[in-house]
Amino acid sequence: MDFSGRALFDIDKIREDLAELIGEEKHRYIESSPNHFYGVILADDDGYFEEYTIGTTNPDVNSQFFLLSEHADEYTLEHELGHLSWAWHDDRSWFKVLDETLEKHTSDMNKDRLKPYARGYQCGGAGTIMSYESELLSIYSSPEITNNGRACGDPLHADNARQLREFAEALRVKLQAIQVSTESSS
Ligand SMILES: [Zn+2]
Fold first, then answer.
1. Backbone phi and psi for residue 77, each to the nearest 5 degrees, phi listed first
2. From ligand 1's centre to the CA of 79, what distance in Å?
3. Please, are residues 46 and 8 in contact by the beta-carbon 8 Å criterion?
4. Which of the chain's ends, N or C, has fewer CB atoms near its CB within 10 Å?
5. Ligand 1 center to 89 CA (angstroms)
6. Residue 182 alpha carbon to ligand 1 centre in Å
7. What is the whole-number distance in angstroms between the Cα of residue 169 and the centre of ligand 1?
8. How far is the CA of 181 from the centre of ligand 1 (A)?
9. Which residues are CB-neighbours of 77 under 8 A, at least 6 positions away?
10. Mean pLDDT for back-to-back runs of 10 residues, the chain (186 residues)
11. 86 C-alpha to center of ligand 1: Å?
12. What is the CA radius of gyration of the chain?
């Protein structure tokens, strides 16, 4: 896609521009399929990403769209899909700062999607996929998984695997409802 002449500093604006570029019909098709995810990969020259950021989402505004840097690594896409499923980072201060930040920046409509267990974790010298550790494991935090003998989650504070399962189940219900409504209207 050719974004030339467009300002690339706001994820929601970039999504709107993309919608314009691909055409309303195609965009509406994607948006009406909640199990479809789509994104834009930006070059360094685009100036959106700072040195250490390689991906971003804004699930409070749009639950299907992500941005990746051209330097995104093998885990970045999964990490961003995790955010779109309402999974979050680990918080070294024992889950307090992140709790407050999320509460503050999430609209009332979505507040019930914030779960205290939807956090990453560090275990056995590495971090789960939603953490900021330099060494990452290709897993979501879960008390049922271990690394070097250490549990990679905690049932109350770090179980993104549960969050992902619940998100998938909610998505299944949503898709079924869409199917029923299109069947009854056709
Ligand atoms: Zn993140």
1. -60, -45
2. 6
3. yes
4. C
5. 6
6. 35
7. 22
8. 35
9. 55, 66, 68
10. 91 96 94 95 92 92 96 95 96 74 93 95 96 94 98 96 98 92 80
11. 10
12. 18
